[in-house]
Design a protein that fits this description.
The chain is α/β, with parallel strands linked by helices. It has 14 helices and 34 strands. The protein has a 22-stranded parallel sheet that branches. It has 4 domains: 3-48; 58-186 and 675-698, no CATH class; 188-337, no CATH class; 350-433 and 440-537, no CATH class. Helix content is 19%, strand content 24%.
Length: 707
């Protein structure tokens, strides 16, 4: 009940006397009305709390106890699974307890990963009985190459003899009681109409799908299965695409009797595995290549097609068109796999934009697909930087933002200047135009785009004073180093450089701060970078893969969840959940600390707490092989591979679960792989049939490119 409604119920005489007395009674009524609103909302919520779909979040565990849904390890940031959905599905799972399809759905609900369950007794070679004839083939058809590509994985069609060894180490064992829960821990990310990279400086009909010009294997999208009884197949998981099944489906589509739309697996109209787009001239529209013109080929030798055909190699990530065919821009909508939401990517980043950056005085978009609009959208990043310089000259000490609105390759050398008291943000985000009103600065949607800057990028802090400028870069893929140049005119240089969700100079020099920027604070958050060379200002790095080392001999470095592939030097070091592949040298050992981290033997650091291999050596004193066993082993150290920077499955268990939260040390601690696997083990205990044994079997790309 509102305050006006309660006030109107009082006698008019009391209201008149209260107005004369200063409104004390009216203030009491307003307090009562506030509490009445809260009480009314609480009463309304009581009815909603009877149902798991509408109850308050704090009620979910209590409803879970009522139906016997055990508590699992919490996953921070709402990662992987929802307790509300898990409790709601408990009855549904129990009705199908013991079935393989229910085990698949249970695994997806408790880990957030795509899953395929395999009952290994179905793949055993058995002696035939005349009364119970089985259809399992005892020998493999070696002339049929397509199914042989699946041997060793969850969808292999061949049968094996019994193996009585225990499952584990990522390998399933064909035995009667064994059930292999194959899981895909690497999520798949979709890039829409991302500009491909020409294989030569002068485009010659050969293109790399990856904008940086490296081989990158495409993965399939994660397709939602129609119901709980459906068994996952190769088209339902984000695994690497293979040439043969895609070629066969395209051939079937162009045959005299094409399959129905519901029978398609790879080229569904609503969610195809990839789409190739071609813009012949700058004045033409970007149009998709019809399926009847696509051909799936092995492009190891870059074979060119003829006519209007387009060849695609999903394994190497290459595209070729006919020689001489006009192509102004070639783009591909495709999926790729990576270990987590770090580095530049199309994943949502809404939490890092908006109020945290403060108000914006000036904003300009950059797009190659949308026509230019004065003061709103331009066609190149260079034009936007020039417009920022002009605005800054007329409005010193203000805040600006440049928005890159599509996944295009911008081959430009940028020299950015940020004056005293100014802040410039360069972000990757969609900036849609609402049909009923003009664009607003707050309409940004930082999801779905990953622009690529290919030229040299330098930034300079200009002017003198006590408020040096700031630069924020969010969501960009920068193939060359980002350099903070020396200040001009004896000024203090740049005050702050912040990289968020960026990939900067991978496998090379990432960020370099020149001398003279002694007040520059460097913040790197959830990025993939090359080497970091920092001056005397403080350095803060979190959840980041640094390939090339950290050189900060005069700086205070604060690292949390960082994987460093290279040496590290700092004046003062504070590190938590870090993985240092090479020795660390710290000048002031009496300051700072290192916690829950791995350090190469011979590192000079401040005091340590629960670090490796120190803990392992304390547990086994006198064993000379402990340090070698606990040393890090990476699945891949080559940029472009899906498992780039991730610990290999053969790495020591002390590293896989050595972070403070029990997760993997280093940049991928937020993936929470050990917690998800433990949740799966707890959940499976209730739903496995009697006498059956199940084990999670992660499916990870090998890092190579099979021919």
């Amino acid at each position: 009940m509102r305050a006006e409604e309660i006030w109107a119920l009082l006698p008019a005489a009391l209201r008149s006397q209260d107005e004369a007395a200063g409104g004390v009674l009216r203030a009491l009524v307003e307090v009562m009305a506030e509490q009445a609103v809260l009480l009314d909302a609480d009463i309304d919520q009581l009815a909603d709390d009877w149902f798991v779909e509408t109850c308050a979040e704090w009620v979910v565990p209590y409803l879970g106890e009522l139906v016997g849904a055990g508590r699992l390890h919490p996953l921070p940031d709402g990662t992987a699974f929802s307790d509300r959905a898990r409790v709601a599905d408990t009855i549904r799972f129990r009705r199908r307890k013991g079935t393989t399809a229910a085990l698949e759905e249970l695994t997806r609900a408790n880990t957030g990963w795509s899953t395929a369950a395999v009952e290994f007794f179905e793949r055993l070679v058995v002696t035939q009985h005349v009364n119970h004839v089985t259809t399992a083939p005892a020998t493999a058809a070696i002339r049929d190459a397509e199914p042989l590509e699946l041997v060793g994985g969850p969808f292999e069609p061949v049968c094996r003899t019994v193996d009585v060894r225990a499952m584990g180490a990522g390998q399933g064992r064909p035995n009667i009681p064994n059930i292999g829960m194959y899981v895909w821990p690497l999520p798949s990310y979709r890039l829409d109409r991302a500009t491909a990279a020409p294989a030569a400086n002068l485009p010659d009909s050969r293109w790399w799908i990856d904008p940086t010009g490296v081989d990158r294997q495409l993965t399939g999208p994660t397709v939602t299965e129609p119901d709980i009884d459906h068994r996952a197949d190769e088209a339902n998981v984000p695994g690497p695409l293979r040439r043969r099944p895609l070629r066969d489906e395209l051939a079937a589509l162009t045959s005299a009797a094409p399959p129905a739309a519901e029978e398609l697996r790879w080229f569904r109209e609503d969610d195809p595995s990839f789409v190739v787009w071609i813009q012949p001239t700058p004045g033409d529209e970007l149009r998709p290549v019809p399926l009847e013109h696509l051909r799936i080929c092995d492009l190891t030798g870059w074979g060119l097609p003829t006519g209007s055909l387009v060849r695609v190699d999903p394994v190497l990530g290459r595209v070729t068109v006919a020689a001489g065919r006009p192509v102004h821009r070639l783009a591909v909508s495709w999926w790729y796999a990576f270990s987590a939401d770090i580095g530049a990517g199309p994943y949502p980043r809404r939490g890092d934009l908006g109020p945290a950056d403060g108000p914006v005085d000036w904003q300009l978009g950059v797009s190659v697909t949308e026509p230019p609009s004065p003061g709103e959208v331009v066609a190149s990043v260079g034009e936007a930087v020039t417009a920022w310089h002009d605005w800054q000259a007329a409005h010193p000490g203000t805040t600006g933002r440049i928005v890159l609105m599509d996944s295009h390759r911008y081959l430009e050398n940028l020299a950015v200047q940020v004056g005293q008291g100014s802040r410039l943000s360069i972000v990757a985000a969609q900036w849609p135009r609402p049909p009923e009103r003009p664009r607003r600065q707050s309409d940004l949607d930082p999801v779905g785009v990953r622009p690529c800057l290919l030229g040299n990028v330098s930034v300079t802090g200009t002017g003198t004073g006590d408020r040096p400028g700031e630069l924020i870069v969010d969501g960009l893929l920068i193939s060359q180093p980002l350099t903070v140049t020396a200040p001009v005119g004896g000024g203090p240089g740049l005050g702050r450089v912040e990289l968020r969700h960026c990939t900067v100079g991978p496998s090379a020099a990432g960020l370099a701060v020149a001398a003279g920027n002694d007040r520059t604070r460097v913040l790197v958050h959830r990025c993939v970078t090359g080497a970091l060379a920092i001056g005397g200002g403080p350095l803060t790095v979190a959840d980041t893969l640094v390939h090339g080392g950290i050189v900060a001999p005069d700086a205070e470095a604060d690292l949390a969840g960082v994987t460093v592939l290279g040496t590290t030097t700092a004046r003062v070091l504070t590190a938590t959940d870090c993985l240092f592949d090479q020795p660390v040298t710290v000048a002031r050992r009496q300051q700072g600390h290192v916690r829950f981290s791995y350090l190469r033997p011979g590192s000079v650091t401040p005091r340590r707490y629960r670090c490796q291999p120190d803990l392992a050596q304390q547990a086994r004193p006198g064993d000379p092989d402990v340090a070698t066993r606990v040393g890090p082993a990476f699945a891949s150290t080559s940029y472009g591979n899906a498992t780039y920077g991730r610990l290999a499955e053969t790495a020591a268990a002390e590293l896989h679960s050595g972070a403070e939260s029990g997760a993997e040390m280093g940049a991928f601690r937020r993936a929470l792989t050990p917690q998800r696997l433990n949740n799966l083990a707890l959940a499976l205990a209730e739903y496995l049939p009697l006498g059956r044994v199940a084990a999670p079997l992660p499916v990870l790309p090998t890092g190579g490119y099979p021919r």
